[in-house]
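WARN retry 2 of 3 for item q-0093 after timeout on previous attempt; input resubmitted unchanged.
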Amino acid sequence: MTKHLDVVDSFNLYYSYWQFLVFDSTLGNPGCVWTSGHIRQGFAKRDRTASFATLTQNGWASVTCKRGDIIDLEQYDRVIALTIVVRSD
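OK item q-0093 returned
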């Protein structure tokens, strides 16, 4: 059984350099240093920021942000769950 997730926002995102970032806007340098381990897992993370690898060098992605608990994980090919504390000014 899948719980209903509330859609918070949907938008198109341009990504480049094989990655996109989610970060706290107060960080001066939100980028992460990628190690071979990060490359294998598909993301790099540090305090208040995370970088996610993409399948192509650059392009557009359709993003939908949802809020709620995901119960039925079997319907997804891959799930990455990270806790990232961000602030908004």
